[in-house]
């Protein structure tokens, strides 16, 4: 049994070393190559989990005197495995975030000229609209002034007509 346990430990060590090395290279891959690497690493992690379970079963079958010392090693293996899983999750999410960032940045690089052209077009339209509004405002102000002048003239004409009518009445009254 001890040789079987030693074999499991060696396999686990080899497997975790390979997983660690491969996880360090994930950022170098993109697309399907990256997905393939990740699935391969996940399979290796599953295999490492199975090795841990086998080691645990073997340790539980040992006498109490040997079991205590080996349970400490088993806990360190489990901790190492948990750390690898955590690193794998981080590598997956970090790459997703990096991928989104890269896409956004590449859109910025590719779209800069187009965005600049659209911005300039929109600025030009805004300036043209502002000029038209200013011209329209001036026309409204001039129309209002002309209208006010007309009303003033009409008021003067009315007063003139009213005075003339009053004089005619006064003249008719003097004649009559």
Automatic annotation (TrEMBL):
GO cellular component, one term: Golgi membrane
Its membrane topology: Single-pass type IV membrane protein; Single-pass membrane protein
Keyword terms of this UniProt record: Coiled coil, Golgi apparatus, Membrane, Protein transport, Transmembrane, Transmembrane helix, Transport
UniProt-listed SUPFAM superfamilies: SNARE fusion complex, t-snare proteins
Protein name: Vesicle transport through interaction with t-SNAREs homolog 1A
Entry GO MF terms: SNAP receptor activity; SNARE binding
Parts forming coiled coils: 34-110
Location of the protein in the cell: Endomembrane system; Golgi apparatus membrane
GO biological process, one term: vesicle fusion with Golgi apparatus
Main location group: membrane
Residue span(s) of domain Vesicle transport v-SNARE N-terminal: 1-92
């Amino acid at each position: 049994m001890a040789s079987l346990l030693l074999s499991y430990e060696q396999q686990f060590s080899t497997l975790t070393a390979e997983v660690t090395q491969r996880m360090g290279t994930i950022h170098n891959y993109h697309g399907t190559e990256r997905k393939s690497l990740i699935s391969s690493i996940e399979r290796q992690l599953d295999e490492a989990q199975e090795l841990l379970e086998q080691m645990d079963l073997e340790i539980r079958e040992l006498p109490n005197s040997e079991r205590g010392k080996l349970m400490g090693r088993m806990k360190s293996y489990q901790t190492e495995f948990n750390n690898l899983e955590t690193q794998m999750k981080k590598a997956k999410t970090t790459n997703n975030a990096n991928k989104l960032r890269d896409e956004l940045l590449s859109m910025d690089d590719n779209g800069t000229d187009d965005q600049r052209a659209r911005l300039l077009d929109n600025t030009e339209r805004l300036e043209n609209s502002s000029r038209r509004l200013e011209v329209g405002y001036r026309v409204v102000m001039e129309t209002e002034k002309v209208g006010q002048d007309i009303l003033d003239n009409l008021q003067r004409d009315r007063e003139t007509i009213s005075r003339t009518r009053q004089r005619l009445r006064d003249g008719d009254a003097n004649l009559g």
